[in-house]
Amino acid sequence: MRSLSSSISLVIITSVLSISLIYSFLIVLYAWTIEDNIFNRLVNDEATHITEQFKRSGEVLPPKADYMRLVENFTDLPTEIQKEYPSNPSKVEYQTSSGKTLHITTIKLGEQHLFLLADVEQFEVSKDNMPNLLVWLLVIACFISAIALVVSLQTAKKITGPLKALASDVNKKNAGNIKPDTFPENEIGLLALNTKNAFNQLNTALDRERAFTKDISHEIRTPVAIIQNVLSASKEEKTITESNFDTVAEAVANINQITSILLALARSESNQTGVVNLTAELESLIINQYDFLLAEADKHLDLTLNFDGDVKVMCNQNLVNILMLNLLSNMVRHASGDNADITLNERQLIFKNQTQQNAINSPLASGVKGKQSEGLGHGLNLIQRICEQSNWQLSIEQPPGYFIAQISFGNTPSNT
User: In degrees rounded to 5, what are phi and psi of residue 64?
Assistant: First the structure.
């Protein structure tokens, strides 16, 4: 495979050499053309002089130049002219078999048609100097090509150097090794920047895939095992008890919760953010889901809302809806007592409910749950994952008789 540097050098040298040869050809052609035009002008000037003298004196004077002569009869012309002239009377230059170069023009003097011939062989400079001229043109072409070779090598090195460096960085398969600022501010720098962005996107997608594969295999295994155990026990007993039914329903609910969160986190769309009105989203969620959650949990729970107007933040709308739904669901399922509070302001979102459970150590760790909890201990850990994706901070407070989940928005609120 030919290197890019060699290709660039070859293109430049070929172009320069081609231009030099074309230019040399044009010089030779121009020299011949100028020389022929000079001879033609001399012949035409002599013909004009003879014609004017004839008009003044009526005499046909011989040409002043000794290399010119008048021919009265067509048959007296050289054989080469007699053969070609009838078919091409506009032709002015002829080559004879003896090597002479003749220029011819016709003169009308009264009723006579004469031919003025000029033997210009002795004045042809280009023919005599053509070998030397070609040698000099060849030397100049070689000299220019040598300069072009040096320039092409430097240019190729300048162009391919950053590309080789970029190829080396890309070969390391690490976006951190690609530093667009070190490359020229041209197409190569833009290529480096786009390559780095592409690597980052690929690495992010790969990280999401690895996390999803790891999480789904870990998180789903437990509820599936519970369902299998219940089904095995029910098959032996040939019936399903209410307790087993509740256990299966709880496991299925956890599978749905885990799956929805993990799929949302695994999608590339989870990185796309925009301004979301949390107040409107939370109100819509409560209106559409709260009564259903209460009926499913067979509970009565008065909900107090402390909303500080419209709170707008930069986040992913899909993720934040899943987060708030899971927090609301957990609050309804695990709350004791008759009251629960939700507080939303520009700094934080707080879910507070009464509970009879003892304080839980490391409640955000995967698999950790309270002794009285019927869940699997993954809900808060997955909610924390969503908060991390949104650059939020999730904290759990457990004063006596209460469970409080607090999300701090930090510097992300965007009041618009």
Answer: -70, -35
